[in-house]
UniProtKB/TrEMBL annotation:
Annotated organism of origin: Oncorhynchus kisutch (Coho salmon)
Record's GO cellular component terms: plasma membrane
Keywords tagged on the record: Membrane, Transmembrane, Transmembrane helix
Major subcellular location class: membrane
NAD keyword on record: no
Highest classification ranks of the organism: Eukaryota, Metazoa, Chordata, Craniata, Vertebrata
Transmembrane segments: 12-34, 46-70, 77-95, 221-248
Location relative to the cell: Membrane
Entry membrane topology: Multi-pass membrane protein
Record keyword Membrane present: yes
Protein name per its UniProtKB record: Tetraspanin-8-like
Pfam family for this entry, one: Tetraspanin
Domain of life the protein comes from: Eukaryota
């Protein structure tokens, strides 16, 4: 029984240390993300989520420290605090994972509607064009739905497929019957300076449109996030189970009565046979 108690105790301490390390890393990532999006226009929308992450990560970090302290010093209140706090945090994170899973399709449709509202790209707003430029550069694609045809006759330079990209990405020639113009976008340029040159017939553009790629990347990112948080919830649940096991062992612990040794010999009484005692 003692070996089992020591094994459970060591496992619990290991889980608490692991939770402490993971919480510290997540807290550092959240701080970095907060600083990265601090000047962004989207900061007001994501700020409540960042605050929740701060509270959750700081709470699990402190609770893991209490768990290690309670297990090493056999303090029941610290182990109880760990088990209750981690149970609430695990329940909250599990609910958020379920909500994210069921809202995944809605988020994909929202992304689709937001980008389709930019069509036609030839008459899109300046901010929308900058957004699509960044998407095309990062994901090596062109247009949103029908590829380069979404741009009409003004194909942006971010659609151009270089010789190095042609080996890894599928590129096509726009055609010979239409005059294509490379559109060099600059925020402070005049209207006449936007069109710098004609497209050579040997130039290639990316074949795949960007919207399906963008939705696929967003869907994979959501699935990855849900998977990470589910694994984290499972780790917290393991810690709670071990904490409850330690509490049960503390409750069943029986105090062994002390053994007292004395130097005086015990007193004996001489026994006699029945016949001798009668006489």
């Amino acid at each position: 029984m003692g070996r089992i108690h020591i094994c459970v105790k060591r496992t619990f301490i290991f889980v608490c240390v692991l939770i402490c390390i993971i919480s510290t890393l997540l807290l550092a990532i959240t701080l970095f993300g907060h600083g990265y999006f601090h000047q962004s226009e989207e900061i007001e929308e994501i700020l409540p989520g960042i605050v929740v992450l701060y509270v959750l990560e700081a709470a699990t970090l402190v609770l893991s420290i209490f768990g290690v302290y309670g297990a090493r010093k056999e303090k029941k209140w610290a182990v109880v605090l760990f088990s209750v706090g981690m149970s609430l945090a695990s329940l909250y994170l599990f609910v958020e994972c379920v909500k994210a899973y069921y809202s995944k399709h809605e988020m994909e449709e929202l992304t689709r509607e937001e980008h389709l509202a930019m069509m036609p790209l030839s008459g899109a707003k300046q901010t929308d064009i900058e957004t699509i430029y960044n998407i095309q550069t990062n994901f090596k694609c062109c247009g949103l739905v029908q590829g380069y045809q979404d741009w009409g006759t003004d194909i942006p330079i971010s659609c151009l497929c270089s010789d190095e990209d042609s080996t890894d990405f599928k590129c096509v020639a726009p055609g010979n019957n239409t005059r294509f113009v490379i559109h060099y976008h600059k925020s402070n340029s005049s209207e006449d300076d936007d069109h710098k040159g004609l497209m050579d017939e040997n130039m290639l553009v990316y074949e795949k449109p960007c919207l399906p790629i963008l939705i696929s990347v967003e869907s994979n990112a959501i699935s990855l996030g849900i998977g990470i948080f589910v694994a984290l919830t499972a780790l917290w649940d393991v810690g709670v189970v071990l904490a409850i096991t330690i509490l049960c062992q503390m409750r069943r612990k029986v105090d062994v009565p002390p053994v007292i040794f004395t130097s005086q010999p015990p007193q004996y009484r001489e026994l006699c046979d029945t016949a001798e005692c009668l006489t």
